[in-house]
Amino acid sequence: MANLQVCAGATLQCSFGGAPGVLNVLPANRTMVGGVPAATLLDSIPVVNITPFAMCQSVANPAVIAATAAALGVFTPMPCVPVTPAPWIPGGAPTVLIGPGPALDAQGTMICAWGGVIKVAQPGQTSTLVP
What we know:
By secondary structure, the protein is mainly beta. It has a single domain (1-122), classed as Tumour Suppressor Smad4 (Sandwich). The chain has 1 helix and 12 strands. The protein has one helix at 62-70, and strands spanning 3-4, 11-14, 21-22, 32-33, 36-37, 55-56, 78-79, 97-98, 101-102, 109-111, 117-122, 129-130. The protein has a 4-stranded antiparallel beta sheet with strand order 3-2-11-10, with no helix packed on it. Strands 1-12 form a two-stranded antiparallel ribbon. A hairpin with a 5-residue loop joins strand 10 (109-111) and strand 11. The N and C termini lie close together (7 Å).
């Protein structure tokens, strides 16, 4: 079964995020999908590739822990700064290479160090398929 290729401008969602984020893909690989750069499993750098998800609601986030302690135990979400220590986990068998890395399809996921699961909500294109 084929999945949609993820590209620059894709919408991402973190399970602990307060709002969707955006995937930024630098045009280093010079591979385009619908006129925008195609993403690989290596496009996983926080802030550069993975934008913040508004407010973080993870009780494992040190900023949330500190703010909650300062509020005398009242749960206090804090601004999200994703911490992604590993690249994307492919949704299927990565069969297409883009530059040095496998193509990222819409089934890919990523884990944040604070326990969130980052998924592709909208891949940024709708016509090119990855086998």
